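Private note to self, pasted from the team thread so I don't lose it. Backbone tokens:
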């Protein structure tokens, strides 16, 4: 079981590490591609060693400009892709089919092959362009999962929120039994 993890330059870089950890927990091999802005955001928000830690969780690390990588082809079997976090720039490129780097090309491959593509779209407030791009990506088969806290689960820390959102993203790929916490009404 192989999953592509794309990391773009939106705020929420901790989500990338949490998603990678959850993917490894369910036994997935992780193909990682990180944008230049994603590298910067990882360093700014998580720390200078964050990129190395993330790469250590990956099975294969691909360069952003390597559009000839295996994950750029639909003939390469993968279970799906998560972009965590997903910047509005990456969302727009995916929604418009602008395969201008490996991250956006790999996302387009998921759509054309009808595989799951989960976008943790991160921005606030949203412009009409953002909303239209989310609609267009959804109409093509992507799942837009804004990293919104599940307050009903009573998270005790930001780390709890990050872990729950990351686990939910992995659950949407349907690779294994759910790893996220579920609501149990009393």
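Design output:
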């Amino acid at each position: 079981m192989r999953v592509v993890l794309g990391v773009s330059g939106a705020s929420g870089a901790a989500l990338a590490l949490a998603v990678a950890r959850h993917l490894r927990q369910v036994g997935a091999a992780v193909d990682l591609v990180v944008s230049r802005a994603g590298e910067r955001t990882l360093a700014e928000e998580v720390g200078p060693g964050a990129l190395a830690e993330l790469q250590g969780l990956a099975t294969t690390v691909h360069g952003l400009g390597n559009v000839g990588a295996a994950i750029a082809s639909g003939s390469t079997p993968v279970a799906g892709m998560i972009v965590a976090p997903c910047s509005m720039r990456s969302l727009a490129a995916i929604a418009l089919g602008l395969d201008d780097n490996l991250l956006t090309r790999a996302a387009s491959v998921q759509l054309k092959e009808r595989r799951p593509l989960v976008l943790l779209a991160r921005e606030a407030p949203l412009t009409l362009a953002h909303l239209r791009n989310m609609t267009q990506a959804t109409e093509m088969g992507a799942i837009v999962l804004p990293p919104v806290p599940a307050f009903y689960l009573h998270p005790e820390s930001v780390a709890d929120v990050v872990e729950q959102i990351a686990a939910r993203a992995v659950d949407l790929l349907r690779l294994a039994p759910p790893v996220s916490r579920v609501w149990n009404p009393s």
